[in-house]
Amino acid sequence: MKPIRNAYALLSPAIVWLTLFLVVPVALITVISFSTDGGYGLIIYEFSLDAYIQAFDPFYLQIIWQSVVWAFVSTVICLVVGYPFAYFIAHSGKWKNILLILVMIPFWSNLLIRLYAWVILLNNEGVINQFLLSIGLISEPITMLYTPFSIVVGMVYGFLPFMILPIYASIEQLDRRYLEAAEDLGAGPVSTFLRVTLPITMPGVIAGVFMTFIPAVSVFVITDLLTGNRLVMIGNVIRDAFVVEMNWQLGSALSILLMALVLLSVLIFTRFTSSRSKKATR
Amino acid sequence: MNKFAIGTLFLGVAVLSACGNGGNSDSDVAGGEQELANELYFFNWGHNIDEQILADFEEEFGVEVIYDTYASNEEMLTQINSGAISYDIIIPTDYFIDRMIQMDLLAELNMENIPNFENIAEEFQDLEFDPENRYSVPYLYGSTGLAYNTEVFEEPPTSWEVLWDPEYAGKVTAHDTSRDFVSLALQRLGKSINDLDDASLEEAQGILGDLNANVLKYTTQPAAELISGQSVASLAYSDQAGIAMAENDAIAYVLPEEDGGMLWMDNFAIPSNANSQYTAEVFINFMLDAEVSKMLTDYIPSSNPNAAARELMSEEELSNQASYPDIPESSEYYVDPTQDETRAINRIWNEVRAQ
């Protein structure tokens, strides 16, 4: 059939892209994680479980757990801030495009540079402390930088747009007639939101949660800059396994472990939320 | 909207950076051929040369220099192992020379082509990591010591102990490199930084928790904190200390007399799979020329091991404490750790901070 052939033709760039940049790297990582350590980054292609034995160490599992907790906290904050934000943009009429551009402008410069800006803001001698001191609200600078607080700031700042944009897309597509129908049937604004708007925009929320949580759980640049390396995240441990220890097998095994964990949470989360949102719209 | 596609795309991006390969290409050394190649592939640390020097070399010898940089020895080794580009000159640090010799990755130098080697001060010849300089020639050196604020410390601190002092809690910084971190404890315990047996490491870990509690941040670039006064004492590379001292007169630098501090040396070396060993040796010889070498340290804040170049320097340059500090007897260069030792050190670094 012609239409089907056309569909494959149209899909082929995406398939090539996915193969090159997803399938091949993940396959490589998987292979390395099961290979034998030849010392200093050399890979001997003989099957070995050694890397996984190293990776399933309570210490690394504890660090993974810690990273999940920080990523979770940041994702929840992003959601709580991001949803109303997206809702507001979707309902702001002619300002909509300008607001959207403002959300995306930070992407024009590298995250690293923007994080340095936060160093200047959060510093003991930084802009925020100087301002609070000068208006007399505080008498001593509040230590914000190089504390766990700053990693949450960094992650929320860095990943908030990833939460806003998919949620915005789903609110934007929401058919207003559903809301009118809800109103006609006597639902108040709160009830309309909880029983109509939220369930229908749930796919956007799910996408936003993943797009925030996944980079957050494997972050390492933010840890370097904003906590001054005082916090240990699994992303930093994996980076160091590759570049300092030159233990590619361990780095790969930890990456696979982290991916498996993320995939698992994606599965659980989608099953949970999609069954709920189906129930709600029924 | 396909939630999985979005999720998996991110996974893909996340693992991309980890992809690479560990193959090895065969070396193809031209035997005894004393002819300059058209190109010289030079692989150096970032911000480690005045590029005018390369232009001068190109002009004088008609060899085009292809210049690439790296940010760590490990990164350089990964590139050399991958064999993607055959470099003619690399600049490994002391202990890394040792490692690369063990791995058979370096070519033996023909010193007949490097007569300027005699310009290197005697104290920098024939060092532990490459006895008799069979594989390497000193490029630049420096130290890792204590940068401190003279308004807080009237006398130069003689021990790393100040970094542990609760009086300066939240006002000291240390390096975010596991080896330096552990070395602070080893030297404070009166041990050698190369004493890496289990018992010594365990003892070191025992006192690092208290250091961790005191540290404002871990960084190899503490100049900003020193200048602003947020840090009153920092573990610092001599060149970072130099930057801080140039900006703030209150900052001084010392290798603590009791504990010693660390020394490091960057060296010219030629990979065994270089395109043209002869061209590389001509280049090294050119770089060791007194005038050229002086030009190098006029631009880079590291210290110059070239005695002939030092003779051209002013008294003021030579008395700069960041570049030419007094070196205590207990100061040491790093010896290459075994892979198990590297892992043990990194483990301590992670465990102490995750407590």
Main sheet specs of chain B: 7 strands, mixed
Oligomeric form:
heterodimer
Gap from first CA to last CA of chain B: 42 Å
Secondary structure tally: strands of chain B: 10
Please bin the fraction of helical residues of chain A: over 70%
Q: Could you describe the 3D structure shown?
A:
The complex is a heterodimer of chains A (282) and B (355). In chain A, 75% of the residues lie in helices and 1% in strands. Chain A is mainly α. Chain A has a two-stranded antiparallel sheet. Chain A is globular, with a radius of gyration of 23 Å. Chain A has one domain (54-281): MetI-like (MetI-like fold, Orthogonal Bundle). Chain A has helices at 2-33, 50-55, 58-90, 96-104, 111-122, 127-134, 148-172, 176-184, 189-200, 202-217, 221-226, 234-243, 248-281; strands at 36-37, 43-44. Chain A has 13 helices and two strands. The mean pLDDT of chain A is 90. Chain B folds into two domains: 36-141 and 264-318, D-Maltodextrin-Binding Protein, domain 2, CATH 3.40.190; 142-262 and 327-354, D-Maltodextrin-Binding Protein, domain 2, CATH 3.40.190.10. Chain B contains 14 helices and ten strands. Chain B has helices at 3-16, 51-61, 73-82, 94-102, 161-164, 178-188, 198-214, 223-228, 238-247, 277-287, 290-299, 307-311, 315-318, 339-354; strands at residues 39-45, 64-70, 89-90, 136-149, 172-174, 215-218, 233-237, 251-254, 262-269, 332-333. In chain B, 46% of the residues are buried. In chain B, the strands form two sheets. In chain B, strands 4, 5, 6, 7, 8, 9 and 10 form a seven-stranded mixed sheet that branches. Chain B has a three-stranded parallel sheet with strand order 2-1-3. Chain B has 355 residues and is α/β, with parallel strands linked by helices. Classes of the chains: A mainly alpha (282), B alpha/beta (355). The interface between A and B is large, with 61 and 48 residues. Chain A: Residues 64-269 form the ABC transmembrane type-1 domain. Chain A: It comes from Geomicrobium sediminis. Chain A: It holds the Pfam family BPD_transp_1.
